[in-house]
């Protein structure tokens, strides 16, 4: 019996039957909750170009925290084409003139993150080349060198890896996928140790989980359960989300897909074993009694949303066994839904910025993190994948359809909203056909 299985078994025995049967997923109720969460953020931050002022520091609105929000918003937009969502995203990109980062920030994943949303918006209108140009220039400059050691912390895998995936698909140039794989494997296998690039792995294959960076691999341990390694919840969520997005935005015959599938499945098995009885995941995956900063209540929604969304994606596309993972997805979605304040759309239990379980707290139902944008983006991203799964399995109702014409898809075939041809459309999903968004 593995460490995580023994932890999970004990927790489940304590929980008894209270969480044994989660309700079926309903696409309509998932979307209703997502509308409220998206509206909350757009109402709270009506000015897409406004700087943030957290901790006495001024930051622009294209930093990684906002980039993750738009990843989530565009993922839920894939499921329901609400004009106000697209307008909000386009206004943001236009405000920044589709600029990604300065020369001094050019290789840093945090400052490239906005490029994911830029590229997704480009794929909705491939005539708008300005949406792709600047981030492509930055990535091309990286590829002109031999360096593969930029992603020295696991968050960076999510912030930048899907950009390479999308550029390879958009341009048809597999060099982006080759460099993406080289950088991923270097981070996976060599960024740990006593320094950056110390030669030890950040991914523990036996555990199926990641250390956040070299500072948190052994001999560092969890601060509460000191006999356990420290596997930060959201840090693992970043990698899980990135692997799902890389597979989403690359074709099935991408040369290194088997490596990503193998790690995705390893992580899935580990995550299944350390889900809390209430359906959520905590801040420290191997140490359930570590709730984080003093005053924290246990559930943590940024990681939970990414784990639920990743599992939902995996089941929907056939990477994960439905019978094994659907109960965890249903319970995870219920935890996500309970975190939403129905009267406002505010999402509770969000850990703020940081790098370890004890940062960014306390994490409670009513606590407001230092940055709300990225946590809401995580929640929306996960909700979108749950919605897509609910539609594909027919467990619940469907959502409204609307929106303006986009390209490609002018040849009569069906394409998904990332521009990839779909040979077997699913009833109730939205596709591009004949240059228009249609419901199949």
From TrEMBL:
It comes from the Bacteria. GO terms for molecular function: hydrolase activity. GO terms for biological process: carbohydrate metabolic process. It holds the Pfam family Glyco_hydro_88. Keywords: Hydrolase, Signal. InterPro entries: 6-hairpin_glycosidase_sf, 6hp_glycosidase-like_sf, Glyco_hydro_88, PolySaccharide_Degr_Enz. The keyword Plastid does not apply. It comes from Marseilla massiliensis. This is Glycoside hydrolase family 88 protein. Residues 1-20 form the signal peptide. The keyword Heme does not apply.
């Amino acid at each position: 019996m593995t460490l995580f299985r023994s932890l999970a078994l004990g927790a489940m025995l304590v929980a008894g039957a209270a969480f044994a049967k989660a309700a079926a997923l309903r696409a309509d109720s998932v979307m209703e909750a997502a509308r409220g969460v998206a509206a909350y953020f757009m109402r709270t931050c009506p000015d897409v170009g406004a700087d943030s002022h957290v901790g006495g520091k001024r930051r622009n609105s294209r930093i990684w925290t906002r980039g993750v929000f738009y990843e989530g918003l565009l993922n839920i937009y894939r499921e329901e084409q609400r004009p106000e969502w697209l307008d909000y995203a386009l206004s943001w990109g236009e405000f920044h003139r589709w600029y990604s980062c300065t020369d001094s920030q050019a290789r840093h994943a945090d400052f490239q993150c906005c490029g994911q949303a830029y590229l997704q918006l480009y794929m909705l209108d491939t005539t708008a080349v300005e949406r792709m140009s600047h981030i492509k220039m930055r990535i091309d400059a990286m590829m002109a060198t031999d360096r593969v050691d930029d992603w020295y912390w696991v968050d960076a895998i999510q912030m930048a890896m899907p950009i390479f995936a999308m550029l390879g698909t958009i341009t048809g140039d597999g060099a982006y996928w080759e460099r993406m794989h080289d950088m991923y494997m270097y981070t996976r296998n060599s960024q740990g140790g006593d320094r950056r690039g110390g030669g030890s792995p950040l991914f523990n294959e036996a555990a199926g989980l990641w250390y956040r960076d070299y500072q948190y691999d052994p001999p560092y341990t969890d601060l509460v359960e000191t006999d356990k390694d420290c596997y930060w919840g959201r840090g693992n969520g970043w990698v899980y989300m990135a692997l799902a997005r890389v597979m989403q935005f690359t074709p099935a015959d991408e040369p290194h897909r088997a490596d990503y599938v193998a790690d995705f499945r390893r992580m899935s098995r580990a995550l299944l074993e350390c889900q809390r009885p209430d359906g959520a995941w905590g801040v420290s995956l191997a140490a359930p009694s570590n709730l984080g900063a003093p005053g924290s209540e246990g559930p943590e929604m940024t990681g939970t949303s990414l784990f639920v969304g990743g599992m939902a994606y995996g089941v929907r596309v056939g990477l994960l066994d439905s019978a094994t993972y659907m109960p965890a997805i249903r319970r995870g979605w219920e935890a996500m839904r309970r975190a939403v304040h129905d009267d406002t759309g505010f999402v509770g239990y969000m850990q703020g910025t940081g790098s370890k379980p004890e940062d960014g707290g306390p994490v409670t139902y009513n606590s407001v993190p230092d940055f709300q944008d990225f946590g809401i983006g995580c929640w929306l991203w996960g909700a979108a994948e749950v919605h897509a799964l609910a539609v594909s399995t027919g467990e619940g109702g469907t959502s409204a359809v609307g929106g303006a014409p986009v390209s490609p898809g002018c040849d009569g075939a069906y394409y998904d909203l990332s521009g990839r041809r779909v040979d077997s459309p699913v009833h109730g999903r939205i596709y591009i056909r004949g240059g228009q968004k249609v419901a199949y």
